[in-house]
Amino acid sequence: MNVKVKIGVEVHAQLKTRTKLFCSCSTEYGAIPNSQVCPVCLGMPGTLPVLNKQAVKLAIKAALALNCRINEFSLFARKNYFYPDLPKGYQITQYQYPLAANGWVDIDGHRIRIRRVHLEEDAGKIIHMGDRILIDYNRCGIPLIEIVTEPDLTSGEQAYKYLVYLRQLLRYIDVCGGDMEKGELRCEPNISVEVDGLKGERVEIKNLNSIRAVEKAINYEIERQIATLRAGRKVEMTTLLWNESTGKTEPMRVKEEEADYRYFPEPDLPPLIVKPEEIAMIRAELPELPQNKLERFVKTYKLSDRDARILAFNLPLSEYYEKLVKLGVSPHRASSFIISEVLALLKREKKSIEELNVSPEALAELLKLVEAGDLTLNIAKTVFVKMEEHNLSAREVLEREGIVQIRETDKLKEIIMEVMRENPKEVARYRAGEKKLITFFMGQVMRKTRGQANPHIARQLLVEMLEGG
Ligand SMILES: [Zn+2]
Fold first, then answer.
1. Rounded-to-integer distance, Cα 1 and Cα 109, Å
2. How does DSSP classify residue 43?
3. Ligand 1: distance of its center to the CA of 27 in Å?
4. Could you tell me the distance, in angstroms and rounded to a whole number, from the CA of residue 92 to the centre of ligand 1?
5. 17 near 54, Cβ under 8 Å?
6. Residue 10 Cα, ligand 1 centroid: separation in angstroms?
7. Ligand 1 centre and the CA of 24: distance in Å?
8. Which of 400, 432, 453 is the last residue of a domain?
9. From ligand 1's centre to the CA of 80, what distance in Å?
């Protein structure tokens, strides 16, 4: 059986603006229904839309990050359809002349072409409550970009990776919050399958509430279409709804099916003209993109791909990391401490890295004590938590907690003697050449001193005394 799968993805991403696309209503999430509306976004006769410049800027920023060509001339269009979520009776979008086109992203070495990125306004929200239908127009006129790929994807897993990357990228350049539950990001994949030369039509799926759901729905749909074609039946062009509880796609009710939208140019808005110098300015403001940063981290700091990915795909975290390295902490020490300790603490405290009390300078001081051998990593971990809790420096915590280091050679020698007496077999094995037992002895010394032996001095003495016989 020869199977070809083609998947394209349409994403709607809400732009992070304070106000709507064509009026000054707030875009704040969670407001009382229908409290953020005005005659413009409610489509009252005689009102005129005024384009939000910030939305245009964010859309260009996203399109540049997706390697698109920005069109200096683009046009708004009316998409006409009759539905209660759309008080004007049409949606202002871009059709024949989009803001940007011809971009690409690379996912695991596979290039996904971006066909277009365009601006449009959102519709209202319909809420079904028993036999009643409620409408909230707060979302009406919220600025969105639609990002459309060519049908270059071939599996649910690949679509999942593309969407994870896209969400990370949009968050990274601070264009979109990416929260699917708040409707900030919505995905609609389309799938077509060919089995042994038999071609099915393109099927679109809606009602996907998470990136995982997109993956599951695509995989289900591929199997369904293959089975349909193999049974000698046709796959018709249609739009299906994903049912999360059954894990199946279902036909839409007839009235929700695609209509003829009778697009025509929006007469109330002039063409959108973007000057080359504006594009150049936005391009100059773009941070180093995560994919480039990832490669640089692997190359310059010799980090594993996994660790570099964790750091590089989060802009403030990557900046925190690089400050540590600039302050003289070794790249590996800095990355492993951030990934294991800092991120765990942020997760526990439900904080972002910007809200961390411990500055890079303060953490660098602590980690340099570890690197100098003056503090064990275990104690450093405890000290770090206390630094965060009480907003103190490493030295202040050490003093306050009475963490004094045992540096006196005589006292340490005594403890080492004791450890050697208690473990004669290990001593013999060490002397017979099993040098890695040094870790075991260090552990014993630390246990006896409750972690307070200066690790650097203790290790030196241990080696001396073990080798010395
Ligand atoms: Zn409004």
1. 27
2. T
3. 9
4. 14
5. yes
6. 26
7. 6
8. 400
9. 19
Residues 182 and 227 in one domain: yes
Distance between CA atoms of 53 and 274, rounded to whole angstroms? 11
Ligand 1 center to residue 146 CA distance, Å? 21
Q: How far is the CA of 122 from the centre of ligand 1 (A)?
A: 12
Q: Which of 81, 57, 38 is nearest to 145 (CA)?
A: 57
CA of 252 to the centre of ligand 1 (A): 31
β-strand partners of 94: 76
Tens digit of pLDDT at every position of the chain (469 positions): 899 999 999 999 999 999 999 999 999 999 999 999 999 999 999 999 999 999 999 999 999 999 999 999 999 999 998 889 999 999 999 999 999 999 999 888 899 999 999 999 999 999 989 999 999 999 999 999 999 999 999 999 999 999 999 999 999 999 999 999 999 999 999 999 999 999 999 999 999 999 999 999 999 999 999 999 999 999 988 889 999 999 999 988 654 455 688 899 999 999 999 999 999 999 999 999 988 999 999 999 999 999 999 999 888 999 999 999 999 999 999 999 999 999 999 999 999 899 999 999 999 999 998 898 788 888 899 999 999 999 999 988 888 877 767 767 788 888 899 999 999 999 999 999 999 999 999 999 888 887 778 888 888 899 989 887 5
Token pair in block for residue 154 = 């071939």
Of the residues 368, 400, 432, which one is the last residue of a structural domain? Answer: 400
pTM assigned to the model: 0.78
Q: How far is the CA of 259 from the centre of ligand 1 (A)?
A: 27
- The H-or-E segment that residue 128 falls in is strand 125-129
Token pair listed for 199: 């071609």
Range of the domain at 434: 409-468
**Residue 21 C-alpha to ligand 1 middle, in angstroms?**
9
**Residue 31 Cα to ligand 1 middle (Å):** 14
Residues 258 and 125 both lie in one domain: yes
How many whole angstroms separate alpha carbon 92 and alpha carbon 53? Answer: 16
| Cα of 29 from ligand 1 centre, angstroms | 14
Looking at the structure of the chain, the number of domains it has is 3
How is residue 411 annotated by DSSP?
Answer: H
- Looking at the fold, whether 131 and 256 belong to one and the same domain comes out as yes
Q: Are residues 452 and 358 in the same domain?
A: no
- Do 311 and 266 sit in the same domain of this protein? no
94 Cα–ligand 1 center, Å: 20
